[in-house]
Design brief:
With about 210 residues, this protein is of the alpha+beta class. It has helices spanning about 10-20, 25-35, 40-45, 50-65, 85-90, 90-100, 120-125, 175-185, 190-195, 205-210; strands spanning about 40, 70, 80-85, 140-145, 145-155, 155-160, 170-175, 200. It has two domains: about 10-110, Winged helix-like DNA-binding domain superfamily/Winged helix DNA-binding domain (Arc Repressor Mutant, subunit A), CATH 1.10.10.10; about 115-210, 2-Layer Sandwich (Nonspecific Lipid-transfer Protein, Chain A), CATH 3.30.1050.10. Helices cover about 40% and strands about 20% of the residues.
């Protein structure tokens, strides 16, 4: 903790920012919150633009602060895994509120911004609902360029994870902006297709994971 910069103020908010206020820190927490235990390479992939030495430094600082822990994974992984501690997991509410505050800013975001499919996990968990919890689970694969993620609806819960799936019930391909707009109910499937989205599968599958208000 001695190496960490401090505001030097006797204020809980200032003390919190001493620990998590530096650039990239909360995005590291985001990755671990969404993906669980991660290898260094997983974190680097989920943080496009971060310098290698800076990621190492931020991980060390967060470990010293008790926000993350490190453990050795068993074979065949045989590498260090980083995961949030209980104190780190308590930051989930902070990230969710910051995400809500920042959501309107996406409207004017540059189209060249980097994107990872699993970043949808936190906002989607807020507004997507499984509208047919009595039905068998469904999988929807989202594809944006070379990035993919899977939406799973099962027993009333909707989850999003990184990667693809061998047997999706539907596949939606398009830009991050259009995928987010479609999932959020800002545009319907016909509008999305007109704008360039590709949809393969039964449209009723998408209807199952619409927002509560739709």
């Amino acid at each position: 903790m001695a190496s960490m910069r401090s505001y030097g103020q006797y204020c809980a908010l200032a003390k919190a920012l001493d620990v998590i206020g530096d650039r990239w820190t909360l995005l590291i927490v985001r990755e671990l919150l969404i993906r669980g235990a991660c290898r260094y390479t997983d974190l680097r992939d989920g943080l496009p633009g971060i310098a290698t030495n800076l990621l190492v430094e931020r991980l060390r600082e967060l470990e010293e602060a008790g926000v993350i822990g490190r453990e050795e994974a068993p074979p065949p992984v045989a590498t260090a895994l980083f995961r949030l501690t209980e104190r780190g997991e308590a930051l989930e509410i902070v990230l969710r509120e910051l995400g809500r505050w920042g959501a309107p800013l996406l409207a004017n975001a540059p189209k060249t911004d980097a994107f990872r499919g699993h970043w949808l996990a936190l906002p989607a968990g807020e507004w997507l609902r499984d509208h047919a919890p009595e039905q068998p689970a469904i999988l929807i694969e989202l594809r944006a360029g070379d990035q993919s993620a899977v939406v799973e609806a099962a027993e009333g819960t909707v989850r999003i994870r990184a990667g693809g799936t061998a047997h999706p019930d539907a596949v939606i391909s398009g830009t991050p902006q259009l995928l987010l707009g479609l999932l959020a109910g800002k545009i319907d499937l016909a509008q999305a297709r007109h704008a360039g989205v590709s949809y393969k599968g039964d449209p009723a599958v998408l209807g199952r994971v619409r927002p509560m208000a739709v």
